[in-house]
Amino acid sequence: MTKRIERASYRAAVKKGTSEAALAEAVARAARDAAARVAAGELLTAGMYRHGDQLFCYLEHIWDDHGDAAARPDLGVLRRAPEAWGWLDGLVEPFPSIHGPLSWAYMYPVFWFDEPRDLEYYRRDPAPEERCGRIAVLYPDKLMEYVCHHQAIVAEATFVGDRYQFISIHDDVLFSYFERPRDRGQRSISGADGPSEEIERWLAVDPASHFDHFPEANGDDFLVIDTLFALGPEP
């Protein structure tokens, strides 16, 4: 039996009229629950982030493969985790979906530099100085081009970068989890050190033209947002 990691990001929107005090209390409850799940070995890393009325959550779920290297966890359960746990229950607007309203919408993975082969492989030692979140908005006519290029880079598996970064999408919004310092644990999915033909193809289509930039990002494609809580196990 091997303990494995499944990464997941989620998005929510604060209900209009919600007081800052009520939101802070609910976030504190979620943080305590997340800490308990980390201590119990259910989660490796957990974080919640905010920009205005937009909330984002990043979780690294721990699961057992029961000796089957090809097994996958119950993705349906993992994709509803913050909602099932009651995080910010009653304080967020439901997102419509074909399966019914969702208080926390699952964000679909788009890009990563490395994959957590098992729990021990993905432990941080030393722990990061910061566990951060950032967001970006894509122009509708550029969305699929962005996704296709980044999935091609992942499939090629030779582009080296921050092994803990994980970018996901919901509607036209991207959420990127990352850790500081950014230059720790640099590697590619395959372990090869490039070169990457797919990143050259992406750079050739003017990456910045795909983003509806936040003015406060000062020209960057992504905007780093506020951390409500971020935690993981002590090394």
What does this protein structure show overall?
The structure is a single chain. The protein is of the alpha+beta class and 235 residues long. It has 6 helices and 12 strands. The strands form 2 sheets. Strands 1, 2, 3, 4, 5, 6, 8, 9, 11 and 12 form a 10-stranded antiparallel beta sheet that branches. A two-stranded antiparallel sheet has the order 7-10. A hairpin with a 2-residue loop joins β8 (166-170) and β9. The radius of gyration is 18 Å and the shape is globular. The model has no long low-confidence stretch (mean pLDDT 95).
Provide the descriptors you would attach to this structure in a database record.
235 residues; alpha+beta; 10-stranded antiparallel sheet; two-stranded antiparallel sheet; 23% helix; globular
Summarize the structure.
The protein has 235 residues and is of the alpha+beta class. It is 23% helix and 32% strand.
Order of helices and strands: EHEEHHEEHEHEEEEHEE
Count of individual beta strands: 12
Strand content: 25-35%
Q: What coarse outline follows from CA principal-axis ratios?
A: globular
- Helix run count: 6
Low-confidence runs of at least 5 consecutive residues: none
Classify the secondary structure makeup into a structural class: alpha+beta
Major sheet characteristics: 10 strands, antiparallel
> What is the arithmetic mean of pLDDT?
95
The termini sit apart by 22 Å
> Fraction of residues in helices?
10-25%
Radius of gyration: 18 Å
Write the layout of secondary structure elements.
Blueprint lengths: L2 E12 L5 H20 L3 E9 L2 E11 L10 H4 L2 H4 L7 E2 L11 E8 L6 H4 L7 E8 L5 H14 L4 E2 L3 E5 L2 E8 L5 E2 L9 H7 L19 E2 L1 E6 L4
Helix pairs in contact: 5-6
